[in-house]
């Protein structure tokens, strides 16, 4: 399902959240600073290095920790900061990522029915923040995102989530297909929200352990994930516009799941 980009972010925070304090310094730069950030085990969303970077240690340490490195021209680094970056900039995540295995185990141990949200390549930080806000309010147990091609969780995402990202676990996974297979083996049904079906979201059973998949703003859920999903569900539409914004679609399907579970 393809979605439009997000409109203006929410103007007011949800009633029981306060906007979190965030550090304006969302990245570190300079070879030594980046090395120390890597050694400290900080969560890094992106690591940009100059193509001709002489420090092999950064590349080796990033590979050891499973952090993707983007080799870019110096002009791109200069557009991010004019300070002495020495050819290395690391974007530090505003949150600590959780492990999906721990989330599922903990949820079952508490006697709860897992409800997981999988976001396939959603790149707009305001869309991501708005989805996180809805998910936390509705009691979703975790959001799963891919390690590549996903929105950076920065101050904008934190602000748009109105604090929800302080409470809602986010799991960053290398391979969404493998993650879906794990969830299915753990007893969860995977429902992909897509317009490539005539089945309505209102005809689905969300009372059992469920993972809901939502696709990118540009081209929706990948064909591979659609084939891997247990069921497909579409949001009924009667207007002339072809699709909903992804954060609005998330609200519709998440709250249908919550309605069923409350009843």
UniProtKB/TrEMBL annotation:
One of its GO terms (cellular component) is cytosol. Residues 27-98 form the RNA 2-O ribose methyltransferase substrate binding domain. Its EC number is 2.1.1.185. It comes from the Bacteria. Pfam families: SpoU_methylase, SpoU_sub_bind. SUPFAM superfamilies: alpha/beta knot, L30e-like. One of its GO terms (biological process) is RNA processing. InterPro entries: Alpha/beta_knot_MTases, Ribosomal_eL30-like_sf, rRNA_MeTrfase_TrmH, SpoU_MeTrfase, SpoU_subst-bd, tRNA_m1G_MTases_N. Keywords: Methyltransferase, Transferase. GO terms for molecular function: RNA binding; RNA methyltransferase activity. The keyword Methyltransferase applies. Signal peptide: none annotated. This is 23S rRNA (Guanosine(2251)-2'-O)-methyltransferase.
């Amino acid at each position: 399902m393809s979605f439009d980009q997000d409109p203006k972010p929410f103007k007011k925070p949800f009633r029981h959240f306060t906007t979190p304090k965030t550090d304006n310094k969302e990245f570190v730069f300079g070879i030594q600073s980046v090395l120390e950030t890597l050694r400290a085990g900080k969560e890094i969303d992106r690591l940009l290095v100059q193509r001709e970077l002489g420090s092999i240690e950064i590349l080796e340490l990033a590979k050891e920790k499973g952090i993707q490195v983007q080799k870019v021209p110096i002009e791109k680094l200069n557009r991010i900061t004019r300070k002495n970056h020495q050819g290395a900039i690391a974007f530090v995540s505003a949150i600590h990522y959780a492990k999906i295995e721990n989330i599922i185990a903990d949820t079952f141990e508490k006697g709860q029915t897992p409800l997981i949200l999988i976001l396939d390549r959603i790149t707009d930080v305001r869309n991501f923040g708005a989805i996180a806000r809805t998910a936390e309010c509705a009691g979703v147990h975790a959001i799963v995102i891919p390690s590549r091609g996903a929105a950076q969780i920065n101050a904008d995402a934190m602000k748009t989530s109105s604090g929800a990202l302080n409470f809602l676990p986010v799991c960053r996974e290398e391979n969404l297909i493998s993650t879906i297979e794990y969830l299915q083996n753990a007893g969860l049904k995977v429902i992909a929200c897509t317009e490539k079906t005539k089945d309505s979201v209102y005809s689905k059973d969300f009372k059992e352990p469920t993972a809901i998949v939502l696709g990118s703003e540009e081209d929706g859920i990948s064909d591979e994930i659609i084939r891997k999903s247990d069921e497909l569900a579409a949001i009924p539409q009667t207007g002339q516009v072809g699709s909903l914004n992804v954060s609005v679609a998330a609200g519709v399907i998440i709250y249908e799941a919550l309605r069923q579970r409350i009843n």
